[in-house]
Amino acid sequence: MVIDDALVRELLDATEDGAAIVLLEGRAEVVAQAALDSDDFRGAAVLVSRAELRDRMSGSPTDEEVTRLAASLSDAVDKLGA
Q1: Strand partners, 24
Q2: Which helix (H) or strand (E) holds 27?
Q3: How far apart are CA 16 and CA 49, in angstroms?
Q4: Which residue segment(s) compose the domain that 37 sits in?
């Protein structure tokens, strides 16, 4: 499963700090925190929240930083076997 730049950018642009990239049934998507408790996302694994990403970065990330972050998250997912 690939976590791409667009998905990371979508999370960074989310208005809610609790939004997160989640893994469910072979897909990754950005989900609002409130939706995580719904039946649609029952069993989803939270990969990273917007707040966690913002804590790792200072200011607005460059395209290069987003690309590196996406690659790092993809690598982590691959190692999990998701």
Answers
A1: 27
A2: strand 27-31
A3: 10
A4: 5-80
